[in-house]
Amino acid sequence: MPRRTPRTALDRLRTPRRFPGFLKSASVCVLIAGLLSPLSQAAAAETAEIDAAAVTDHCGNQCSDILPAGQNGNATLAQIILNQAFGTQPAHAEDQLGPYANLATGHSGLTNSTINSFFNDASFGVPADQVASTVKPAGRSDVTIVRDKKTGVPHITGTTRYGTEFGAGYAAAEDRLWLMDVFRHVGRGQLTPFAGGAASNQGLEQQFWRTAPYTEADLQAQIDNAVASNGERGQQALADVNAYIAGINAYIDASDKGRYFPGEYVLTGHKDSITNAGTIQHFKLTDLVALASVIGALFGSGGGGEVNNALSLLAAQEKYGVAEGTKVWESFRERNDPEAVLTLHDGSFPYASKPDDPQGTAMPDAGSVNEEQLVYDRTGSASTSSAASTSSTATDTALSSAKRGMSNALVVSGEHTASGHPVAVFGPQTGYFAPQLLMLQEIQGPGLSARGASFAGLSMYVELGRGQDYAWSATTSGQDIIDSYAVELCQDDYHYLYRGTCTAMEKVEQKNAWKPTTADGTAAGSYTMRVWRTKYGPVQYRATVDGKKVAYTTLRSSFLHEADSIIGFQMLNDPGYVNSPQTFQRAVQHINYTFNWFYVDSEHTAYYNSGDNPVRATGVDAEFPVWARPAYEWKNWNPATNTADYTPASAHPNSIDQDYYISWNNKQAKDYTTAPWGVGSVHRGNLLEDRVKKMVAAGGVTRASLTKAMADAGLADLRAEDVLPDLLKVVNSSTVTDATAKAAVDKLSAWVTAGGKRTETSAGSKTYAHADAIRILDAWWPLLVKAEFEPGLGSELYGAFTANLPIDETPSAAHGPTGAHAGSAYQYGWWSYVDKDIRAVLGETVQGPLAKKYCGGGSLSACRDTLISTLKEAAGKTPAQVYPGDDLCAAGNQWCADSINQRTLGGIKHPNISWQNRPTYQQVVEFTSHR
User: Fold this and answer.
1) What is the pLDDT of residues 241-282, one digit of tens each?
2) DSSP secondary structure string, 456-524?
3) Cα(24)–Cα(5) distance, rounded to whole angstroms?
4) Under a CB-based contact definition with an 8 Å cutoff, are residues 92 and 70 in contact?
5) What is the C-alpha separation between 195 and 519, in angstroms, rounded?
6) How far apart are CA 449 and CA 124, in angstroms?
7) pLDDT value of residue 204
């Protein structure tokens, strides 16, 4: 077991001349913002007795949660050095990682009484014998922070609203100050000057600043608008945030004076370990908006990709002709596939549907599209070929419609549970980081009563968690709130026609420079990021349409409005507001991010899909760019404020007390178009649907059985469970006589019979059961997809479709901003296409089939020949060829290639754990009573 590092005089050790480049591998890459706990600073703050508020906890000891690796995300310089050198861990930095990891092999025997062997007790408060520390932050008398012995989670209790929020800010900085600082710089496009010029840092700031290139005035305007538009709640939110920031800054001052601030400030050159010279900048209101913009871009902004859609449609029409090409394109797009798994079982919620007579579409001329340049004036290490490649990857990620939202939910109504009370197992998949992007806390004060997780730097409220008698969670929904407009250029490349007037584009720039530090030895370099903004959003591409020069822009309904969602989160934390499914739904209607929201109390369950869905002009097809003209603008769109008419709450998928709900970023409801491709007959949502539907039919669902269903789905290879059986049908349609193919078929068949899981032979073995079969399928899938579809589609169209949707997403694959070793898998891939095509070739009924049969040109025998030839090629690939290795894993190490790594965003690192496809933060809840 890792040893805990005590605070000693080592805390003030001299900065070493050389230090492992933890920030280099820390592609600060991704997702959002959170908060919470550090070292034990009882000596640095006044100790006091807690005066716990009288709050009734209706969970009856049946609420649990988990968030690896641990609550403590801060470490002094000495602790970082000891961790890097000897693997020692600061207190509470890693104590949730083991229980989380153990569920992979321990879930089969799970019972209600053993749930907390793998989760934390998420009851309110801390038993007296479990109190580790009690602190009055900054000597305040109106707030107390109690941390428990087991996990170090802060339980914040205030007698005033200001004091409560002050305590939340103080606790957040104790637990995540360095991470919060990193992400406020990400949101401002200033990461490299702050943390170093590593390629990962360059890519991250480029990815996010491209989509949210805000000025300081823009950030302040968001605050002003959110306050002015929301009456008393807006004023309260402003007061809460001011108190929260005051708490953050009080901790910064105390840790600076006491010299127990995070050691990364020394390693990146911001503080001197001997003289203590240097400054940790105080936080301000606009920093939190910058943090929120990262969340909005990552998890709550479905849509985009219209230009790529146009390119693949044009390729289809070029190959097949306009009518047939359009039919082929639509069959691959699967806008509303009748075989897609749905979260809502009944009702129709039309949105972003295909118009009968499209109007205003602005398709680019062939070969004319060029991505808009973002980075200029490169010097030093920014001018290398690898830096240019990083920029290209960041651009592709930013402009794709395939948002890596992730997260899942399983909710069962009381009618089908053993107790008669609803049960839920749900949480967000936000990747794995050290420190984690999310953090845990309990907050109790006037108008506030909740426990759960929040993104670092935004924990003035619990964002996902539980109240006194209800719990809630979210998954990314992905409906389309982003449109692309073709603005016609005039005068030069930086003027465009806006409602008939030649108008100058607004140039927004961010100049960044960096130099080597102890943490990041990347050579000195610099560049300028430059975005041209129009009334219709930032420019993303240049092209011609019918010979006219245009710029394609991206307009997002949440652009300039990331701060607005604070009101919804405030309501969720208010026990005086949320007391029923209906009030829960009204609360989340105030959140403009594209999320699926789930609710459970002792009697009811509920669902609501949030987001500002713009009302588009009649005839506009949201899949493609349209002309930037009044006739095709959003209804009542005001470019000065980027506001418009939005679809009413009743038009959003919503439900109360459905028999069960599942969500794994699948389609929400009938006729509700999702922006990403690949939402068809085979989706990872099926892994939950199949299991929960069966459990509900049997009845008697418990917290343990629902958790087991989640864990079992989290180990499944989607391809093996839902596609491989049909592939083997084709292969076995005649006797397999080739010895190599026969051996591979036997291994694959045995694996399918055993359940098609990617799981260890035993806990800690680091070797998969059916390892050869897994290797064969991992090698076979890309070969069979290419051989199945490219001959029929042609290389150009096949390439265009793979730009819309990657063919595979195994656990060992990189996942955009979260990188490899990120846990989440099987969200995007061609499994639905393969499934529909193979079933069609087999002569089975297919609803919503592809426009043509592709495998073997529709011939079963030819298809079989294609599959066998590619299977033999795959079987011959060595483990080292299939799993080529990286900076964490040796080539050929299958288990390690799949394994989850807590990606370092600071100086503390953790061991890899076995793969699971499950939420990062997860709740298991069942309430026994209600107010």
Assistant:
1) 999 999 999 999 999 999 999 999 999 999 999 999 999 999
2) BT-TTS-SEEE-SSEEEEEEE--B--EEEEEEEEESEEEEEEETTEEEEPEEEEEEEEE---SS--PPP
3) 24
4) yes
5) 8
6) 9
7) 87
Which residues have C-beta within 8 Å of that of residue 575, sequence separation ≥ 6?
A: 447, 449, 467, 468, 931
Q: How many CB atoms lie within 10 A of CB 3?
A: 10
Cα–Cα distance, 660 to 658 (Å, whole number): 5
Cα gap 402→801, rounded to integer Å: 13
Instruction: Tally the residues of the chain.
Output: 931
Residue type, 222: Q
pLDDT value of position 581: 98
Which residues of the chain fall short of a pLDDT of 50? 1-53, 400-403, 817
Q: Can you tell me the distance from the alpha carbon of 909 to that of 901, in angstroms, rounded to the nearest whole number?
A: 9
Amino acid at 606: A
Quote the DSSP letter at residue 848.
Answer: S
* Gap between the Cα atoms of 214 and 290, Å rounded: 8
User: Residue 567: in which H helix or E strand, if any?
Assistant: helix 566-572
Asked whether the beta carbons of 639 and 535 are under 8 A apart, the reply is: yes
pLDDT at 398: 52
Task: For 830-863, write each residue's pLDDT tens digit.
Answer: 999 999 999 999 999 999 999 999 999 999 999 9
Contact 870, 856 (CB under 8 A): no
User: What is the structure's pLDDT at 294?
Assistant: 87
Distance (Å, rounded) from C-alpha 894 to C-alpha 878?
Answer: 11
SS3 565: helix
